[in-house]
Write a structure and sequence with these properties.
The protein contains five helices and four strands. It is of the alpha+beta class. The protein has a four-stranded antiparallel β-sheet with strand order 2-1-3-4, with helices on one face. It is globular.
Length: 140
């Protein structure tokens, strides 16, 4: 069986803030079902790389491909529409959100009830359907 094509695949990614280069020629790929870690010290560029992949910030150079097709997500929502999701972990950004709200960040409209309020139960049920039990246990 031939190996699956990478999704996503980043090549030659570069990013600078002001005159300070934070990423230089970074390449990274992930295959279906693969789980990886991005270890590194504070300031190593891990969050910047994920921000680029998820459309939160724009890259200065390089390519992003999803299923072999060249993409340039210009927003988090656009990245989501292309099948790229990210769970934000910085409590300073969204510390008041539940795990389910973090997983569906940007897609809250899918879980509004008739009164326009967030239906947390349906959001949690969607988590149970979409993520493996190792990540989102069905019985808590």
């Amino acid at each position: 069986m031939a190996p699956a094509s990478p999704l996503p695949e980043l090549t030659g990614i570069a990013k600078s803030y002001g005159g300070h280069r934070v990423l230089t020629d970074v390449s990274f790929s992930l295959r279906r079902g693969e789980i990886i870690g991005l270890p590194g010290e504070n300031g190593a560029g891990k969050s910047t790389l994920l921000n680029i992949l998820s459309g939160v910030v724009t890259k200065d150079a390089g390519e992003i491909r999803r299923n072999g097709a060249l993409i340039t997500p210009r927003s988090y929502r656009e990245a989501n529409q292309r099948g790229i999701f990210r769970v934000f972990q910085d409590p300073a950004l969204i510390g008041t959100l539940t795990v389910a709200q973090n997983l569906w960040f940007g897609w809250e409209s899918l879980f509004r009830n008739a009164a326009g309020l967030l239906d947390r139960r349906s959001m949690e049920e969607a988590c149970a359907r979409c993520w493996p039990a190792a990540i989102w246990p069905r019985s808590r």
